[in-house]
Specification:
The chain has helices at 27-41, 58-69. Helix content is 36%, strand content 0%. The protein has 2 helices and no strands. By secondary structure, the chain is mainly alpha-helical. The protein is globular. The longest helix has 15 residues, at 27-41.
Length: 75
Protein backbone atom coordinates (compact mmCIF):
# COMPACT_ATOMS: atom_id res chain seq x y z
CA UNK A 1 0.00 0.00 0.00
CA UNK A 2 2.86 2.40 0.74
CA UNK A 3 4.90 1.85 -2.42
CA UNK A 4 2.85 4.16 -4.69
CA UNK A 5 3.45 7.00 -2.22
CA UNK A 6 7.22 6.50 -2.00
CA UNK A 7 8.75 7.42 -5.36
CA UNK A 8 12.34 7.20 -4.08
CA UNK A 9 11.96 3.74 -2.53
CA UNK A 10 13.09 1.84 -5.64
CA UNK A 11 13.67 -1.81 -4.67
CA UNK A 12 14.32 -1.20 -0.96
CA UNK A 13 12.16 -3.23 1.41
CA UNK A 14 9.63 -1.43 3.55
CA UNK A 15 10.54 -1.94 7.20
CA UNK A 16 8.85 -0.48 10.29
CA UNK A 17 11.59 2.10 10.77
CA UNK A 18 11.75 3.30 7.17
CA UNK A 19 11.36 7.08 6.91
CA UNK A 20 8.41 7.83 4.68
CA UNK A 21 9.60 11.40 4.10
CA UNK A 22 13.09 10.27 3.14
CA UNK A 23 11.66 8.12 0.38
CA UNK A 24 9.42 10.80 -1.06
CA UNK A 25 6.21 11.16 0.94
CA UNK A 26 5.27 14.84 0.78
CA UNK A 27 2.35 16.64 2.39
CA UNK A 28 -0.01 16.15 -0.56
CA UNK A 29 0.81 12.45 -0.80
CA UNK A 30 0.33 12.13 2.95
CA UNK A 31 -3.25 13.32 2.51
CA UNK A 32 -3.81 10.80 -0.27
CA UNK A 33 -2.22 8.09 1.88
CA UNK A 34 -4.52 9.04 4.76
CA UNK A 35 -7.58 8.52 2.52
CA UNK A 36 -6.18 5.22 1.23
CA UNK A 37 -5.59 3.98 4.79
CA UNK A 38 -9.07 5.03 5.87
CA UNK A 39 -10.70 3.34 2.88
CA UNK A 40 -8.61 0.17 3.10
CA UNK A 41 -8.98 -0.42 6.83
CA UNK A 42 -12.40 1.15 7.36
CA UNK A 43 -11.12 3.59 9.97
CA UNK A 44 -11.02 7.34 10.43
CA UNK A 45 -7.69 8.81 11.43
CA UNK A 46 -8.53 11.22 14.21
CA UNK A 47 -7.06 14.71 14.44
CA UNK A 48 -4.72 13.46 17.16
CA UNK A 49 -3.20 10.99 14.69
CA UNK A 50 -2.72 13.48 11.85
CA UNK A 51 0.83 14.34 12.83
CA UNK A 52 4.30 14.23 11.34
CA UNK A 53 5.10 11.46 13.81
CA UNK A 54 2.26 9.24 12.58
CA UNK A 55 3.34 9.66 8.97
CA UNK A 56 7.05 9.64 9.82
CA UNK A 57 7.64 5.91 9.45
CA UNK A 58 5.87 2.83 8.22
CA UNK A 59 5.84 1.44 11.76
CA UNK A 60 4.31 4.58 13.27
CA UNK A 61 1.57 4.61 10.66
CA UNK A 62 0.84 0.92 11.25
CA UNK A 63 0.67 1.51 15.02
CA UNK A 64 -1.91 4.24 14.42
CA UNK A 65 -3.99 1.90 12.25
CA UNK A 66 -3.69 -0.87 14.84
CA UNK A 67 -4.87 1.50 17.57
CA UNK A 68 -8.05 2.09 15.58
CA UNK A 69 -8.70 -1.46 14.41
CA UNK A 70 -7.50 -3.41 17.43
CA UNK A 71 -5.54 -5.67 15.05
CA UNK A 72 -2.14 -6.64 16.42
CA UNK A 73 0.63 -8.55 14.72
CA UNK A 74 3.64 -10.31 16.15
CA UNK A 75 6.71 -8.09 16.40
Amino acid sequence: MLKPFLPHLNDRPITPDISLRQYGLDSMQAIELMFAVEDTFGVELTDELLTDETFGSAGALWEAVQSLTGVRTAS
